[in-house]
Structures are given as C-alpha cells and as structure tokens.
C-alpha cells in the first residue's frame, strides 16, 4: 500500500514524552514514540521532528525572570528532549540526527537547512531542537517554519486528544469533533490547535496540518496511510 505522505514533520510535545509522570522523560513513552517513528521511516517516509519542552519548563514563572530569558530556558528544554529522542531512535535501530537553532557544539549540530535536507535524503530522522533560536516564538511556530523549509507534505501535530473539537471533550461531552477544517476556521474560531503565528504561517505556505493522538498505538502509521483518525486542516 502506497503511503499518502512522503515527507512529514511531527511536532511532539514535551508532555507526550513525560506521559503519566508529567515531568521529565518517561522511558516507556519515549520508546513508543521512537518505534512509531521507525515504523513510518521503514515505509520510506522522510521524517523530521520538532520537540516541545513543556515537560521541563513552561513559560515565565515570575517577575524576576523576563520573557526572553524564560524563552531561552524553554529552548534548552527542547534540546534536552531532542537529545533523549535522538538516543531513543538510535537504540531502536533508526538513524537520527539532532540539529539545534542555538549553538551547542558538544551536544548537537547547528541547524542549516541544506544540511537537514541532505540528512533527510540519506534516510536519517532529523530532530530539531532549540526552537527558532529567538525568543517570543513557540515550538508550534518552529514546527510550521521547519515544515515549510524542508518541504514537508504535512505538519503532524501529536496531541493528547484524538482530533480538534469545538470545546474540550474532557469537560464538555457535547463538544463537536471535526474531521476537516480550513486554516481560517482555526484562526476565526480560535480553536487552540496551535498559536496564531504558526497557523498563519501554515496558511501562507500552504502547509497542511493533521491533528491526531500519538499515544494510540499504530496511529502514526494510520495517518501516513491516509486513514481518518484525526483532523485535517488545509
């Protein structure tokens, strides 16, 4: 069976790597993510990943830390997750390379678009850490930016819920589940899929977005095969 998407960028939140621990990296959850990524790479899909950092640090925590400093701390958290995911992928036999937007020479290679494309062509999973390298931008925006830069067919947003809803389905059982939306739907309705900067960038570059639950075993492969397990935004 031919896959629907040939090149993807997956946004993996820090919370997805923490699992029930809710802080740090849960080894079992990390391995599950790595094995799902290996499965689609084995199917011939080019894979890049942007890691969030909320399992280690999330935003400004007090008046004594200003916003740019807090954002830099968050970037370091994404590098920590990137290092963990890189090692997890290598441990399951999937070649991977961590590239960072901030220079940390002893830990990772600095991001360069042409080099990242070379690694993808070589069959490596490229993990992007360090956000955009600048404060005031979220990892959602990083994912939208990198997806456009590498020419990804789709930006896969791995969430804790299985699709986009009109409201939080965990607190509102009447919330409507969407299978397809437009970019303007998520902007005009403020559906909290991603921040508005990221959504607008995806709209401007024509990058499709697919929201799904990574925690469900086999879901990533189902998305790649074109099965309807989440919400497509285009």
What structural class results from the helix and strand content? alpha/beta
User: What's the CATH class, please?
Assistant: Alpha Beta
Number of strands: 11
How many domains comprise the coordinates?
1
Q: In CATH, what is the homologous superfamily? A: Acetylglutamate kinase-like
| Beta-strand share of residues | 15-25%
CATH topology call: Carbamate kinase
Flag low-confidence runs. Answer: none
Q: Biggest sheet: strands, sense, closure?
A: 9 strands, mixed
Oligomeric state of the chains in view: single chain
Top keywords for this entry?
234 residues; Carbamate kinase; two-stranded antiparallel ribbon
Task: Set down the secondary structure blueprint.
Blueprint: E1 7-12, H1 14-18, H2 27-42, E2 46-51, H3 67-91, E3 96-100, E4 109-110, H4 113-121, E5 125-129, H5 139-150, E6 154-159, E7 164-165, E8 177-178, E9 180-181, H6 183-188, H7 196-205, E10 208-213, H8 219-224, E11 231-233
Parallel strand pairs: 1-2, 1-6, 2-5, 3-4, 3-5, 6-10, 9-11
Antiparallel strand pairs: 7-8, 10-11
Helix pairs in contact: 2-3, 5-7
């Amino acid at each position: 069976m031919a896959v629907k998407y040939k090149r993807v960028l997956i946004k993996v939140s820090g919370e997805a790597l923490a699992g029930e621990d809710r802080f740090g990296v849960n080894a079992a959850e990390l391995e599950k993510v790595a094995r799902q990524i290996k499965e689609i790479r084995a199917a011939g899909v080019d894979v890049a990943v942007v890691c969030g950092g909320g399992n280690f640090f999330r935003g400004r925590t007090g008046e004594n830390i200003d916003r740019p400093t807090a954002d830099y701390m968050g970037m370091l958290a994404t590098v920590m997750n990137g290092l963990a995911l890189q090692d997890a992928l290598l441990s399951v036999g999937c070649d991977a390379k961590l590239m960072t937007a901030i220079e940390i020479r002893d830990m990772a290679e600095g991001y360069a678009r042409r080099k990242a494309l070379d690694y993808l062509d070589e069959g490596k999973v490229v993990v992007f850490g360090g956000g955009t390298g600048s404060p005031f931008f979220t990892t959602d925006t990083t994912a939208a930016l990198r997806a456009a830069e590498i020419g990804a067919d789709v930006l896969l947003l791995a969430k804790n819920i299985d699709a986009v809803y009109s409201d939080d389905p965990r607190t509102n059982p009447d919330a409507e589940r969407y299978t397809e939306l437009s970019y303007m739907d998520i902007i005009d309705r403020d559906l909290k899929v991603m921040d508005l900067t990221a959504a607008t960038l995806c709209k401007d570059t024509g990058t499709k977005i697919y929201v799904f639950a990574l925690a469900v075993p086999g879901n990533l492969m189902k998305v790649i095969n074109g099965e309807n397990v989440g919400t497509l935004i285009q």
